[in-house]
TrEMBL record:
It comes from Rhizomicrobium palustre. The keyword Repeat does not apply. PANTHER family: RESPONSE REGULATORY DOMAIN-CONTAINING PROTEIN, STRESS RESPONSE REGULATOR PROTEIN 1. It holds the Pfam family Response_reg. The modification 4-aspartylphosphate is found at D55. This is Two-component system response regulator RegA.
Length: 176
């Protein structure tokens, strides 16, 4: 485990970024924050951190670009990727880029700390409140909808679903 507790947080959601920074500082981390990919890469190059928490989908690009830069400038950096759109493909990609864990939002500061400080090769505990099947389905539909550029007809075609059925699902709130 690293003695140095420098932490880079790359998150475009300002309230979440500031709340997480304060929580991690109370846990003994020396925190640096960034809003997007460009700023995250710049901060990583200026002072390579021992730890990082990076959002997957940032306004100016993909957080995996920051993860890649972090591992270029500091190969032993332990990175946790956060995302509001969890799916298997992005989780695998995050691990391939060098992330030690992949957590869905909203992630608790205790969960993030545990993931950052976990012994290499240790298995994470199963989630206490896993997503319901309805929520997983909704997340998948939202992800495909986003990948199709918010085109309802294209999304319905790719999901093999009637367009009106999809419109009704998209109009509802997300399930718990």
């Amino acid at each position: 485990m690293m003695e140095e507790k420098t932490l880079l947080i790359v998150e475009d959601d300002r309230p979440l970024r500031e709340r997480l920074a304060r929580a991690m500082e109370t846990r003994g981390f020396i925190v640096t924050i960034a809003e997007g990919v460009a700023e995250g890469k710049a901060r990583a190059k200026e002072a390579p951190p021992a730890y990082a928490v990076c959002d997957l989908k940032l306004e100016d690009g993909n957080g995996l670009d920051v993860v890649e830069t972090l591992h270029t400038v500091r190969p032993d950096c332990r990175v946790v990727v956060l995302t509001g759109f969890g799916n298997i493909a992005t989780a695998v990609a995050a691990v391939k880029y060098g992330a030690v864990d992949y957590l869905p939002k909203p992630a608790d500061a205790d969960d993030i700390t545990a993931a950052l400080l976990a012994a290499p090769g240790s298995k994470p505990k199963p989630p206490e409140n896993p997503m319901s099947a309805d929520r997983v389905r909704w997340e998948h539909i939202q992800r495909v909808y986003e990948l199709c550029g918010h085109n309802v007809s294209e999304t319905a075609r790719r999901l093999n679903m009637h367009r009106r059925t999809l419109q009704r699902i998209l109009a509802k709130r997300s399930p718990r």
